[in-house]
């Protein structure tokens, strides 16, 4: 008995479809286990928004912290630019 061309394609197509449908839930489950949830400022189970004290401590530990005088100068400059941008927008 000879099979038609259509009959030869149906078997592999059904097998491929069943395999693909079987792998979708597995891939979704694996992805959900690998990606940490992100809710608000909490990413990867830790606060994402650092505090000023935590940032300063990390900079100091890495020896990249600015001296206090220079830090205040930078802060004042940023605040001046912020005021300038806000006044130009009005």
Question: Which labels suit this protein?
Answer:
single chain, 90 residues, mainly alpha, 3 strands, 7% strand
Number-wise, the strands total 3
Helix content: 55-70%
Beta-strand residue percentage: 5-15%
Mean pLDDT: 76
- Give the strand line-up of the largest sheet: 1-2-3
Most strands sheet: 3 strands, antiparallel
Compute the separation of the termini in Å.
85 Å
Derived from helix and strand composition plus strand pairing, the structural class reads mainly alpha
Tally the helices.
3
Q: Using the CA coordinates, give the radius of gyration.
A: 29 Å
Shape: elongated
Low-confidence stretches: none
Order of helices and strands: HEEEHH
Report on the architecture of this protein.
This protein is mainly alpha-helical and 90 residues long. The chain is built from 3 helices and 3 strands; from the N terminus they run αβββαα. It has helices at 5-34, 52-61, 68-88; strands at residues 38-39, 42-43, 46-47. It has a 3-stranded antiparallel sheet with strand order 1-2-3, with no helix packed on it. The longest helix is centred in the first third of the chain and has 30 residues, at 5-34.
Topology:
Layout: H1 5-34, E1 38-39, E2 42-43, E3 46-47, H2 52-61, H3 68-88
Antiparallel strand pairs: 1-2, 2-3
Question: What's a concise summary of this model?
Answer:
By secondary structure, the chain is mainly alpha-helical. Helix content is 68%, strand content 7%.
